[in-house]
Amino acid sequence: MIVIPDDQPVVMGASPAFADFLTRHAVVRFDTLPGGESALVERIRDAEIVVNIRSSCKFTGSVLEQCRRLKHLSIWGTGTDNVDLAAAERLGITVTNTPNVSAVSIAEHSLSLMLAVARRTVVVDRQTRQGLWPRGQMKQLSGKTLGVIGLGAIGSRMARLGEGIGMRVVAWTMHPESKQGFRLVSLEDLLAESDVVSVHLRLSEQTRGFLNRERLSRMKDGAILINTARGPIVEEAALLEALREGRLSGAGLDVFDTEPLPAGHEFNAMEQVVLSPHNAGVTPEALEAGLSLALKNVESFLAGHPVNRVAPL
After folding, report:
1. Domain with CATH 3.40.50.720 in the chain
2. CATH C-level class of 103-275
3. Active-site residue identified among 45, 119, 278, 309
4. What is the CA radius of gyration of the chain?
5. Torsions phi, psi for 52 (to 5 deg)
6. Average pLDDT over residues 83-106
7. S-S: 254 plus which of 15, 174, 212, 228, CB 3.0-4.6 Å?
8. Could you give the angle at the alpha carbon of 288 between the alpha carbons of 8 and 52, nearest 5°?
């Protein structure tokens, strides 16, 4: 039994890859969100394979323990922070993801946030529509330093885009053997030198709170922070403080500690912050590529040779 517990808003149901998949496999698809652990368990209790679309569905150890028939969890996306991978491995559940399919889209979005913050695009647009004619107060990025934290598919692409607009690029990575031809520096030097810092790490216990108050305090005065990775990688209270005090001149954020972002959140009142609703990787091209790969991962699992496996390692 194959179950999709969370196709809301509907993306899989409209996918050509899914229509093709249905010619070979029976699927139970829910087009509403489960709304909690017990409801999620109720939907997938009898499933052997689950295709998960939304990171809001949490596959905790408790959920997995209650789904004894589950053999394969196919995640759409790269991040697996919503899955207890240790529990999955203990229970013999294969977990797969869809690496790199959104890399181009997310890197482009990171670039757009960087430009929007530096050029104050949102504020200037609003003021112009109000009949004002604002001048100055913008930053030119060519010749400035872009610091990229994390050199996976997205970070490497962002670094190339930075070079493409004339920025000097430095990078820090947990895997220096794959430096992709970029100049690697210590994290301390990157924070001190960079006019823009762009975060491209996976969320894990190792990276939760990675940019904490102490590390944010090491950033260059007037620098810009871009985060399209995961909200909890950056200590939110410390970031708010740095923006409030003007030590950072702005931020471009696609991810947050709490999603959706609460209506009364302080970020909403900050003109120097450009926000987007965790949609950096949601272009039609990236969307279909990811959905297609999630389904191909199921086919590979059923054929006995799972690919893109993140558990068991």
Report:
1. 2-101+283-311, 103-275
2. alpha beta
3. 278
4. 21
5. -100, 130
6. 96
7. 228
8. 45
